[in-house]
Amino acid sequence: MKYYAGLDVSQQTTSICIVDDEGKIVAERKVASCPDAIAEALEPFAITRAGLETGPLSVWLWNGLKERGVPIVCMDARHANAALKMMPAKTDRNDAIGLAQIVRTGWCKSVHVKSTASHEARALLATRSQLVRTRCDLENQVRGVLRTFGILFGKRVGGFAKRAEEIIDGELHASPTIQAVVEALMRARANILEQIRHLEAKVRSIARQNNVVRRLMSVPGVGVITALGFVATIDDPGRFKRSSSAGAYLGLTPRIYASGETMRSGRVSKRGDDFLRRSLYEAANALLTRIPQFSALKSWGLRIARRGGYRKAKVAVARKLAVILHAIWISGEPFRWSSQEPRELA
């Protein structure tokens, strides 16, 4: 007799439902949300397959259960939710029952669980991005405070800190309160900048030790942040049979609606990782507007820009970059500036 288990995970507890190959409920449990407790609850049944939805704890639990020999699959929460909506009431118990039946029938899409190294790199990049946004918020707050009192920040040679120092020592000398406010904001900005520099040094260190990242950086417009973000997000290039699937995975292809004689193509889907999608868009912008050296990719992007404008061209080039980066990763070849350039063996 084969047994299948559905795990409905919450932060404190996990509801478990075990069914046989005919769909009959064999056992139900409620245990703590940790790999040891879940594996202990499943051990007496020789589980054929267990399943849980994607969520905040799914990576930790999936890795922990795999290490303990549990045949676990991680399901796309959107697909599971579509099936669970058929349940008469939304409870943890009912969700566990529904997940067990989904796992038994195989009507689920297994999600790739990224490696620990990929999650570490993503955490590093996400934290740096958050600190950069915080720095921008602090700078805008300084400008807003000064504007209230008729002081325009403007631009000066020497950068933001130099201009702020001039205003504190000069125009704010007669206003100790606002002077203290601006000084506090500038101290916070200096601390944020120090942490950003520390994280960027860590990013460069990781990139130097990763041959794939360094190879991807040979593509014009692609810097260390985009290259490392691509490697951390894709994790395993073998997930895609074709390089063109990388663009769709990152939400850079149009939405399609087709039914009968109706066929509509909409805007890009914007599915997948938002950080990497924005990074590729910025790389496309740099390629089209800042890099003087021409390439077959840049010429293709400029032709699109002449027909439909630069905004559409940047999205198209961003998708093309995702395809090229995946192809370079798979083949081991460097970027070819011209389509006539001969292929080099890796």
TrEMBL record:
One of its GO terms (molecular function) is transposase activity. Residues 5-148 form the Transposase IS110-like N-terminal domain. Pfam families: DEDD_Tnp_IS110 (PF01548), Transposase_20 (PF02371). Residues 214-295 form the Transposase IS116/IS110/IS902 C-terminal domain. InterPro entries: Transp_IS110-like_N, Transpos_IS110, Transposase_20. One of its GO terms (biological process) is DNA transposition. It comes from the Eukaryota. This is Uncharacterized protein.
